[in-house]
Design a protein that fits this description.
Helices cover 56% and strands 11% of the residues. With 209 residues, it is an alpha/beta fold. The protein folds into 2 domains: 2-83, Methyltransferase, Methionine Synthase (B12-binding Domains), Chain A, domain 1; 90-208, Rossmann fold, CATH 3.40.50.280. The protein binds CO-5-methoxybenzimidazolylcobamide. The site of CO-5-methoxybenzimidazolylcobamide has 37 residues, from α3, α4, α5, β3 and β4.
């Protein structure tokens, strides 16, 4: 769809205003939030990631693309979050310590809220203790972690270890997501589930609670 191609193109250019405006127009044209996300925002960010890896663009451009993505996400968020849904479980989410990437985590948060979960979002750069303390204090039954760096994914293990040490690993389940992690990695650190994307994350969390 032409408008979604444009969303992706302007996201690649880091043009926040245009991404916002085009997303608004797409919503007006009744394009679904899922399609805007997958074929517009995420498609554009994938190109940005590839160019960054090949050193064709640098951090400032990536940051501008991230801001443009947030502008579009702000508009589609309400479409994912149904109002007045009774909470079907409480989950604490965050990006692990040392990691500032939060777009995927935010997306997971939006979709979980949309599915009726009570979501406590600790933000990014979250130490293991903070995840566990908050889940305990808030009586949450799931901790959801995101990591985008190979240098920070091992922080997830600190959380699963801490839960084990405190004897909480049966009552508080863990789910992990993010580009460098996998099903095998989840198993290796004793996490209860691995989500390839935010939508499958919701289904898995439903099973965990
Ligand atoms: Co960075 N960065 N970055 N970056 N960045 C990556 C991750 C990288 C792969 C780029 C590359 O080289 N191609 C690379 C990591 C390499 C590695 O570790 N092997 C990298 C690097 C190196 C860095 C810095 C170290 C660069 C530097 O400073 N020299 C630095 C680190 C800063 C830090 O965290 N300490 C850095 C900084 C940044 C910005 C701040 C500029 C910006 C982040 C802005 C922000 O998040 N607010 C940024 C961005 C945008 C990226 C790329 C281009 C895009 C990531 C993204 O947001 N994608 C990324 C390249 C890439 O991933 N292809 C890259 C869109 C997002 C929706 O996808 O987060 O994967 P993602 O989420 C997916 C799934 O993974 C899953 O669902 C989502 C889809 O539905 N998911 C979950 C994720 N979390 C989940 C949690 C769940 C469930 C599902 O439940 C809890």
């Amino acid at each position: 769809m032409k408008i979604l191609k444009q969303v992706a193109e302007y996201l690649e250019k880091g043009d926040r205003e245009r991404v916002y405006e085009l997303t608004r127009q797409a919503i007006e044209q009744n394009v679904s939030a899922r399609q805007i996300l997958d074929e517009g925002l995420i498609a554009g960010m994938k190109v940005v990631g590839d160019r960054f890896r090949k050193h064709e663009i640098f951090l400032p451009e990536v940051l501008m693309a991230a801001r443009a993505m947030n502008a579009g996400m702000d508009l589609i968020k309400p479409l994912f979050i149904k109002e007045g849904v009774t909470a079907i479980g409480k989950i604490v989410i965050g990006t692990v310590y040392g990691d500032l990437h939060d777009l995927g985590k935010n997306l997971a948060g939006v979709m979980l809220k949309g599915a009726g979960f009570d979501v406590i979002d600790l933000g990014n750069n979250v130490p293991a203790q903070k995840f566990v303390e908050t889940a305990e204090k808030e009586n949450a039954t799931v901790i959801g972690m995101s990591a985008l760096l190979t240098t920070t994914m091992m922080e997830m293990k600190n959380v699963t270890n801490l839960l084990k040490d405190k004897g909480l690993d049966k009552s508080i389940k863990t789910i992990i997501g993010g580009a460098p992690v996998s099903e095998e990695y989840a198993k290796s650190i004793g996490a209860d589930a691995y989500a390839y994307d935010a939508a499958s994350g919701v289904e898995l969390v439903k099973q965990l609670v």
